[in-house]
Amino acid sequence: MKVQALTIAILASLASTAVYAETVDPLKKAFIDDSSVKVQFRLRYEDVDVTNVDQQNQTTLRTRLNYQTGDIYNLFGVAEIDDVRSTDNEALIGDYKYTQINQGFIGYRGPAETLAKLGRQRILLDNQRFVGGVGFRQNEQTYDAVSVSNTVVEGLTAYYAYVAEVNRIFPEGSGKEQHENESSLININYKGLDFVNLTGYGYLIDNLDVASFSTDTFGIRATGDIKLDALKFNYEAEYAQQSEGGDNPVSYSADYYKLGAGINFEGFGAKIGYEVLGSDNGTAGFITPLATLHAFNGWTDKFLFGGKGNWDNGLVDTHIVLTGKIAGLKLLAKYHQFESDYGDIDMGTEWGVAATYPFAKHYSVGVKYASFSGADEGYDFSNDTDKLWLTVEAKY
Questions:
Q1: How far is CA 247 from the centre of its chain?
Q2: Binning pLDDT at 50, 70 and 90, where does residue 90 land?
Q3: Are the CB atoms for 362 and 346 separated by under 8 Å?
Q4: pLDDT in tens, 307-328
Q5: CATH pick for 3-395 out of 3.30.70.3040, 1.10.287.950, 2.40.160.10, 3.40.50.880
Q6: pLDDT for residue 150 is more than 90
């Protein structure tokens, strides 16, 4: 499937159909009356300081235009275009100048609470630990895919997607911007119980461009909360097993597990978590090449490992998260301690703080800072790193 051709066909169809919209009532209703247009601006300043490497900073502005039609015979269309302007392209900062179609798909609302999409689309599953959109970066990760979700059973959501291409966050011409796939994503979520939210999943990734990214992953995730008067306790527990998939040249088996528990009281919360991306005795590690990696294992992104999210020795992340809200100001603080799953390697520590303030309905401002301290020398992640972000957003 060539989504570029598909997207052009969608846009051409929208344009040509709009010509007749004034004289044909169903088309006018779908393409004008029931349609929606959204505009978003995100201005960001980012500063990166890595020991033994030159300090870099960059200012970027992303403009996003989204158009969605109303339904006509249960069909609808979405077209979304992103444009990023930048002071410069810096090697240490993952935002780049570009203009591209971020989303372009045809949707179908079928019988029995079924929703199908064909084309370039956003796919965000669970907490995006395995499949996400890297929404923090100015260039979002999207997928050229066919997807189907069904909610006919109360509390149950069944999801399947066949992914033909992953549109990554890297710029055109870099050689890393797109990965051709023949991947299947299966996710079944059940929220029908009061005390637990259960998800089972199977992600069969066959990356035709980077064989080492090809994996078969199966897992189960449970989350929930318990309320006692003004106190609310929450928990999460997850386990997954991974082996090589597609044409991956390495034969291995590795485990993933995560445990977390927290408490919330009158707008303030604290949580402790323990996450392990395991290793098969140093042969290969449990990887997450489709994840929103920035949201996990520290904001300084020291453990991207080329987009895999892990290395052969595995990664253990013990972390504490504090949250708060005061007069509309959202506060967040994190502390991580990292070590290898195999080889007894001290991989360092990181702390980070963030504050976001939404105002006047359409606007928000935010600041985020993270500081990583390396430990054992001789590794790519050994250098101390500090990062600062200042962000202003407007959405209409």
A1: 25
A2: confident
A3: no
A4: 999 999 999 999 999 999 999 9
A5: 2.40.160.10
A6: yes
